[in-house]
Amino acid sequence: MPQDARLERLLDFLRRSPTPWHATANMAERLEAEGYRRLDETRPWRLTPGEKVYVTRNESSIIAMQLPTGGLSALRMIGAHTDSPGLRLKPHAAQTAAGWLQLGVEVYGGALLAPWFDRDLGLAGRVHVRHPDGRLEGLLLHVDRAVAIIPSLAIHLDREANNGRAINAQTEMAPVLLQGGGNADLERLLRDWLAAEHGLEEVEVIDFELAFHDMQPPARVGVEGELIASARLDNLLSCFIGLEALLESDGTQGALLVANDHEEVGSASACGAQGPFLGDVLRRVNAQLGEGSEEDYIRLIQASRMISCDNAHALHPNFRDKHDAAHGPALNGGPVIKVNANQRYATNSATAALFRELCREADVPVQTFVTRADMGCGSTIGPITATELGVPTLDVGVPQWAMHSIRETAGSQDVAHLARVLTAFVNRAELP
């Protein structure tokens, strides 16, 4: 497959997915275009061997399944997450200062705050409205133009700005929205934006989950286009690559892609990796295509394998001392196996050996990341999914710079690298 076409699809997906709800909707749209049938968790399921189906929860998490044509004996699972750190509106967001309408924000996840200043910001998320007939409806909103900014304080008024001064998210990061605006203007603006996007004129805004997003579009960067720069690479890049692998597979094996919300805040939710979403779906599939017993379910889980995909820290040319000297992944150097003895990553030698073999078969280079012994280590949905299900799991990811910034950077060649390996995984007839 021409890689330029794949990268264009990636950039389009990133641009159209400013929130987990939009990412899930865009993944669902592409799955349906490829013949996947949507399932409703509140309705009875009728599954057929060889069928392709998907299901969402909270409109922000998604599971897509390629059901085997034969017996349900093992699943090749790919995991990712749809959420990214950022700034989300508080319920009573409107506030005024110095003649400006500003919006109070809450920091979602471990966001790198400094890059949010002086950026053109749009607004997106989910809004629930009441129609004139009393009907409630949830709608996606994507204000795809610059409507706000968080202005920096001039260096002349803050001589310590370049000396590592702390940022107070409560008092210093309320975006500026409208000159002369008041508390009533936010609801008016929301109605205007809903009218423009959905053609709804007479609705009342009841509640919302909204977040700011960077208006600078995703781009290829570098003299040779070696880099991809975008918001939300962590972890929409893995969502995209996992979806590509599933859709490019030959369809012969049982396979599953799960993209959970709320990873950046601990995964403890009904649709997060610590919640029951994946287990609920697998039990329903096993009840119809397997023998349906608890023993049969456990056998299915133990015969399956999960590759948890979440980006890895690439070696930074300006901060090489932040990596262990023997474990500094390079951009465009291939996918990274993530290892942590304290189980912050789920990788063990058996699951790592499977991935190394897949890379060998796909002719893809592979790298390894272990954090420095004197630094803390992040985590992923991998250990959580392994704990909840018991499925043998490993953690891998595309190397990237500036993780949790408003704009992150990855290698353009690594998109194809990981896609090839994951496709080989989904197509693999035997799992060790």
UniProtKB/TrEMBL annotation:
<keyword id="KW-0031">Aminopeptidase</keyword>
<comment type="similarity">
    <text>Belongs to the peptidase M18 family.</text>
</comment>
<keyword id="KW-0482">Metalloprotease</keyword>
<dbReference type="GO" id="GO:0005737">
    <property type="term" value="C:cytoplasm"/>
</dbReference>
<keyword id="KW-0378">Hydrolase</keyword>
<keyword id="KW-0479">Metal-binding</keyword>
<dbReference type="GO" id="GO:0008237">
    <property type="term" value="F:metallopeptidase activity"/>
</dbReference>
<dbReference type="InterPro" id="IPR023358">
    <property type="entry name" value="Peptidase_M18_dom2"/>
</dbReference>
<dbReference type="GO" id="GO:0004177">
    <property type="term" value="F:aminopeptidase activity"/>
</dbReference>
<keyword id="KW-0862">Zinc</keyword>
<dbReference type="GO" id="GO:0006508">
    <property type="term" value="P:proteolysis"/>
</dbReference>
<protein>
    <recommendedName>
        <fullName>M18 family aminopeptidase</fullName>
        <ecNumber>3.4.11.-</ecNumber>
    </recommendedName>
</protein>
<dbReference type="GO" id="GO:0008270">
    <property type="term" value="F:zinc ion binding"/>
</dbReference>
<keyword id="KW-0645">Protease</keyword>
<dbReference type="InterPro" id="IPR001948">
    <property type="entry name" value="Peptidase_M18"/>
</dbReference>
<dbReference type="Pfam" id="PF02127">
    <property type="entry name" value="Peptidase_M18"/>
</dbReference>
